[in-house]
Every structure is written in structure tokens, then in C-alpha cells.
């Protein structure tokens, strides 16, 4: 199967290894990966701050970038996927663009969603010894409805034991610009999240959104906790 890769800003500039391993995983699963070079920022930071009109040029540029073919679009970031999925709503005053946005949104999948639901694969042959906590990001479970797919893949990782924690699905406090505008509240939220994670003494914290992992990982680091922070694709590419 041919697929387009949507790298996202964080994957491009902060966590290049996540982007690289996503491509490697897709290729391992017999996908031919295409990288539309015109892709850029999906506009999420501005959109979350309410700058809808000023974000429209970026949205339209993204739409044009992924109109080069009709193949599925895969990204290792639920938050960016959720942002693009809302393009038709943001562009509803421009029916032609809204229709084009809908066609792109319909082809866009978060990585675990694509692997489990589109490829029909639940075991990618990964192996990782140790105990892990999975953080279900708000973007995946609340905006995309992707709740079981990451867990299905992680439960099939040989040697990995997933540990439940208190308030597992509570927000970590990042929320994009929320963590800047409401920094004190955000700080308390991530502190509580790390307390719950640390209580079960895991070897790994695993998530499917880079932004949440940066937020929680930063708190873990400041507290000196011996917990390795891993994007889910890091786990799925472990052997």
C-alpha cells in the first residue's frame, strides 16, 4: 500500500527519531511511503488560540500539499491529525475549500489507528522487556476516538507489562497554548500525573503524542525519576 507521511512540526524539528521510526515501521509493514514536500505546519497553535482566519492560508497550503494523490495520510501525532480533521468546519464559509478539506481529512489517520484498523495488524513483532505506563492523550481519545488501538499494539509487545495508574485518562496539562496561558494550572496537572505514574514504579512512560510526552517527560526529568519516556513508535520498533 502507498501512503503519504505527515511529519508534523514537532516530528520535523524536535523528535526526528519519531519521524524516522514511523517511516521505518510503515516500510516494515510493506507500505511505500511518500513524503509530500509542500507540507508544513497544520496551524494547530494558531487555531487553538482562536486565530481561525489568519490560519486559513496554512490550512489551504496543507490541503494542496496532500491533494497530489488519493493515498492514505499517516501521522504519528493525534493532536495534528485532530487539527486537520477540523479543517472542513473552519472552512465552512468557503464550500469549495471545505469539500477539498473533507477529502483530505477522510484520508488522514493517526499511526496506531492506521496500523490496526486499515492494515489489520495487531502484532508488529516488537520486543521490550519491562513495565510501562501508557498515557492516552486527550487528542487521541477525545478528539479522534482512538482509545483501543495503541493498547492493542502494546499488549502484543513481547516482554512488556502495562501497568494501570490512577486517573489514567486525565489530561497531562499540556493542551498546547493552555500550558502557556494557564501555566500554574498546567504545572499542577502534570505534577499530579507524574505522581500517579511514579506510584507504580514503571520502567517506561509510553505515549502517542510528542507534545504530551515532552510535557510529562520534562516533569519526570525535573523530579529525577528513573523512567524512560518513549513514543509508541519507539516501542513498536524495539527488538
UniProtKB/TrEMBL annotation:
<dbReference type="GO" id="GO:0016491">
    <property type="term" value="F:oxidoreductase activity"/>
</dbReference>
<feature type="domain" description="Cysteine-rich">
    <location>
        <begin position="133"/>
        <end position="216"/>
    </location>
</feature>
<dbReference type="GO" id="GO:0005829">
    <property type="term" value="C:cytosol"/>
</dbReference>
<feature type="domain" description="Cysteine-rich">
    <location>
        <begin position="3"/>
        <end position="84"/>
    </location>
</feature>
<protein>
    <submittedName>
        <fullName>(Fe-S)-binding protein</fullName>
    </submittedName>
</protein>
<dbReference type="Pfam" id="PF02754">
    <property type="entry name" value="CCG"/>
</dbReference>
<dbReference type="InterPro" id="IPR004017">
    <property type="entry name" value="Cys_rich_dom"/>
</dbReference>
